[in-house]
Specification:
With 423 residues, this protein is α+β, with helices and mostly antiparallel strands. Helices cover 30% and strands 26% of the residues. The protein has 13 helices and 23 strands. Strand 20 and strand 21 (369-372) form a beta hairpin.
Length: 423
């Protein structure tokens, strides 16, 4: 069986390593992949947003199954285009990917179907937005409607900061068309939990919960990033909370999408905040999270490709989806300076005995050497019986990986460990 994975980061590397374990798989192509996936997949130089070329490649190479991992191609309709050519896919069609592609859509969906989320107002006129901010409760949260590389959310601690955020989005077009419409919403507090769930539109199977570390600096300081590390499971997410989320959030969301004629098939990501008034949805993503995937999939004991195919075929109800009850920790090694300016092109060394634990996000091969080629370079994941061992082991892996100007947070998992000890 020939499998194609669209995307090129650490998340895709984690998906590929898991799919590779299926004995029916003869070849895996990554579009575009990256130099660090050598040995796991054949990288094909086609960008993840180039839908036409992706489809041509799939057809001419007789791809049997395609996984579309990143948000952009999903929102652009990669799954629709592949399915039109008869290629079975994992991932939602464009009409369902809008749950991530438009915050206005997702907020209105939650309001219409009574799914708990922050209260909000939508503005497509800057004067109305600024007028609203004159009396809005502060802090407040300003969000660009469309995709903005994870940067379209501004937590404003003051009225001036909120106005600046609105001006930068609506007037200066900091996020292009994505910011022409903004959502201004209630500021919520509480621990955050990421829950990825398989769904075929009928059955919902949540995966093990996880905790992301979005800020660049230790103790959650500094700029937001694509994610600097993760642990799973998330100790704040108790069995009781999980049951509440299933009843009030997960099933209602999947039903709501069906009722709207936008059946969601694939991995639905629930970004949750456990507020004093119960769990609420901060955001939906229409795909696996990065770097959540790098801790969640290593704990999956069932065969990933089989589960994915069950989702595609609408047979998730009959599939076995089993997770280990161990703990996982992933520490991201980035280029110093990320998420703003950084240098690339430094040679990387990853000892071969730990390469199974390393998910490469930004690297390229040049004359047989592996060079850094991005802000987030790789993630090292360890699994252990206890969270504390998983954290120590992940940092043990990091200490054996080298490249100049490497930067990583020293406190991945520390908050989770504290929460666990306090229980
Ligand atoms: P997002 O890009 O939607 O994941 O948002 C980035 C981060 O902003 C989230 O992980 C939260 O930490 C924070 N955030 C988003 N919305 C809210 C909110 N309504 N209240 C408090 N924090 C929020
Ligand atoms: N880790 C958050 C995301 O994938 O959007």
């Amino acid at each position: 069986m020939k499998v194609m994975v669209v995307g090129g980061g650490g998340r895709e590397h984690a998906i590929i390593k898991k799919i590779k374990l299926n004995k029916n798989v003869s070849e895996i192509f990554a579009l575009p992949g990256n130099g660090g996936m050598q040995g796991d997949a054949t990288c094909v130089n086609i960008g993840a947003k180039d839908i036409e070329k992706i489809v041509d490649f799939a057809v001419s190479n007789q791809i049997d199954y395609a996984v579309v991992a990143p948000d952009d191609p999903l929102v652009l309709g990669a799954v629709d285009a592949l399915e039109e050519k008869g290629i079975p896919c994992f991932g939602p069609r464009a009409n369902a990917a809008i749950i991530e592609g438009s915050k206005v859509f997702s907020k209105n969906l939650m309001k219409k179907y009574g799914i708990p989320t922050a209260t909000y107002e939508v503005f497509n006129n800057i004067d109305d937005a600024l007028k609203y901010l004159e009396t809005a409760p502060i802090p407040t949260v300003v969000k660009a409607d469309g995709l903005a590389l994870g940067k379209g959310v501004i937590i404003a601690e003051t009225r001036d900061a909120a106005c600046d955020a609105v001006k930068s989005m609506m007037q200066d077009k900091a996020f292009g068309k994505s910011g022409e419409t903004v959502v201004i919403e209630e500021f919520l507090t509480g621990p955050e939990v990421s829950v990825l769930a398989f769904t075929d539109g009928e059955t919902v199977v949540p995966m093990v919960s996880s905790m992301d570390h979005k800020r660049i600096g230790d103790n959650d300081t500094g700029l937001n990033t694509g994610g600097m590390g993760t642990v799973a499971p998330n100790p704040y997410y108790t069995a009781e909370i999980a049951a509440e989320c299933m009843e009030k959030i997960f099933i209602p969301t999947v039903s709501a999408m069906n009722a709207e004629g936008r059946t969601f098939k694939g991995c639905l990501y629930f970004g949750l905040m456990l507020t004093p008034n119960g769990p609420k949805v901060i955001e939906y993503n229409c795909r696996f999270g990065d770097p959540e995937t790098q801790v969640v999939l290593p704990l999956l004991e069932s065969d990933l490709l089989t589960v994915m195919q069950a989702v595609t075929e609408g047979k998730l109800r009959d599939a076995e989806v089993k997770f280990s009850d161990k703990n996982a920790c992933c520490v991201i090694m980035a280029s110093k300076g990320y998420p703003t300016e950084y240098e690339k092109g430094f040679e990387m060394t990853i000892p071969s005995d730990i390469s199974d634990n390393v998910y490469v996000a930004g690297a390229k091969l040049s004359d047989g050497k592996l060079l850094t080629n991005g802000g987030r370079v790789l993630g090292a994941t360890a699994i252990a019986d206890t969270l504390s061992d998983a954290i120590n082991d992940a940092y043990g892996l990091v200490s054996r990986i080298h490249f100049d100007n490497a930067y990583y947070r020293r406190d991945i998992g520390a908050k989770a460990l504290k929460a666990r000890e306090e229980k």
